[in-house]
Amino acid sequence: MRALILTIVLLILAFVSLFVGVGDLSASLITVSRVPRTAALILAGVGMSISGVIMQQMTQNKFVSPTTAGTLEAAKMGLLIFLIFTPGAGMTLKMLSAFLFTFLSSTVFLAIVRKIRHRNVIFVPLVGLMFGGIIGSISTFFAVQLNIVQDTNAWLMGDFSGILQGRYELIYLTLPAILITYLYANKFTLVGMGEDFSRNLGLNYNAIMNIGLFCVSLTVSSVVITAGAIPFLGLIVPNVVSMIFGDNLKKTLPLVALSGAIFLLVCDVIGRVVIYPYEVPIGVTVSIIGSVLFLFLLLWKKR
Amino acid sequence: MEKKINIRRNLWIALLLMIVSGALFLFYNLGNSWEFALRLRGLKVVAILVVAACVAFSSVAFQTLTNNRILTPSIMGFESLYLLIQTLIVYMYSDQTYRVLSSIDNFMVSVAGMIGFSFLLYLLIYKKGKDNLYLLLLVGIILGTLFSSLSSFMQLLIDPNDFFIVQGKMFATFNKINNKLLWPSLVVMTATLIIGFRMTRYLDVLALGRDQAINLGMNYNRVVKIFLVMIAVLVSVSTALVGPITFLGLLVTNLTYELFRTHKHYLLIIACIMVSATSLLIGQFFMEQVFNLSIPLSAIINIVGGFYFIYLLLRVKKL
Fold this sequence. Notes:
The complex is a heterodimer. Chain A is mostly helical. Chain A has helices spanning 2-19, 27-59, 71-85, 91-116, 123-145, 149-156, 174-183, 185-191, 195-200, 205-227, 233-245, 249-274, 282-300. Chain A is 75% helix and 0% strand. Chain B has helices at residues 7-27, 34-65, 78-93, 97-100, 103-127, 133-157, 160-170, 179-198, 200-206, 210-215, 220-242, 248-259, 265-289, 297-315. Classes of the chains: A mainly alpha, B mainly alpha. At the A-B interface, α4, α5, α6 and α13 of A face α6, α7 and α14 of B.
């Protein structure tokens, strides 16, 4: 029922997103630019919020997400290093490089979390943000050497205005990741109850963790490559959904996915409307709305 | 069994090292117009000492307050706010930046902005009745992330030529120390440290943890607030003077904890100031004489500090 309502909302928004701010409509405009853009937005929204859920389950910490674990920074770094050393390489290789970096950094982060999990809940995202800061400062170092700080900022800021047919298809790689996550939803719920508990129930803990890492890295790197970094999405959407609907992933996962897509579509429409005929990159809109929402969650939550 | 470390002796060695590296930095390869070079280098040494003292005191105090070894106060949003202010100024005035706003104005605006921000942050948290320091940090960092995405957005709109003004502010540098800023910073730093050193004994108690400190009769919230204010002042001054050096604090505090295993913060902070000054002096020396200024010092510090941080997280048992 809830999923149905959210689906209807999503469809309406998708329709709005197709036609907001279009000068003259033509069939080719719709197939070349409009449909790809809306499709990319929906996939990125679903993918990023679902990665957030998986990471929260794997670390048993509600504050972990691609933003607060250095994942976004690692994907950026993979992309940047590849651009520096082999500027002419194709999309597939860039994707591979970003994927490897994301996977590696997530593995390191999980190892770190295992050590500090039992301290304060907020300590984990603090360390994650610091971790991301380090990865970021290493990339900046290379960027400064080559005088491309301003350009890399432009490339890596989340922005869907450059999405065109033929240049965004890598984002469909999020689909298998989303599918796998849904199939393994029950197992991720168990992983969220802790290592000992899930092993006790006969779960192959390490295998599930690796599947989770794989899905998150695939999603994050493909989104960063096609659209740039979108902060906070994986943090806020899962938290809001879990506050309202609880933690049974098999039931809430579709809701998280739908809300993620809706949130991103709304932010995109806002970004396109506020300074029409120009547009604010979605990385900025999401970051402003997202951080305000997150602070609200932190400070006004009952517990 | 842990090896016993002679603290007095180590302190003397650190002092000696600092003086030697300072002398090396001042007198090596002076050249013909030695009066000019010496004056210039003298200013840099003073700046390095100011920054070393600010970073050392604020980082040690901060780590004691938050009971850990891996966080530094600069991550709390100070540096991203500083960059946001700088970006905003360049965005508004583009190539007129230096004409409209003198360096001293810029310094004042930055310091006032950062201190004002920290006060708002403290008020927000303490008004809500949540005296949770980690929460304070998280809110600070989230605001910091917000500031950085705002500045990256503005940096996209800035003319590429003007962007170099911003890029020059993104990395701490001791190469162009401004006389007019140095003396006010020195005064503020000294005043804060005089108050700070009188309160180091509170840090010794705070190191036992919140509950113990309260149990021992300390007015916990008040003392913590005073320290937070001092930290804000010191971080703001050092950032506005030379620019952001995020991981310097992390590097020098941990080095200090390894070399001086003491719980007396009085000694720890003095030692940490000397360690920071020595590492900055040596780093700056190598940068000038060996690398010919090709790499920004803070970039090196960030990379070394960054890897050290990951090492700490993965290797050290207790954090």
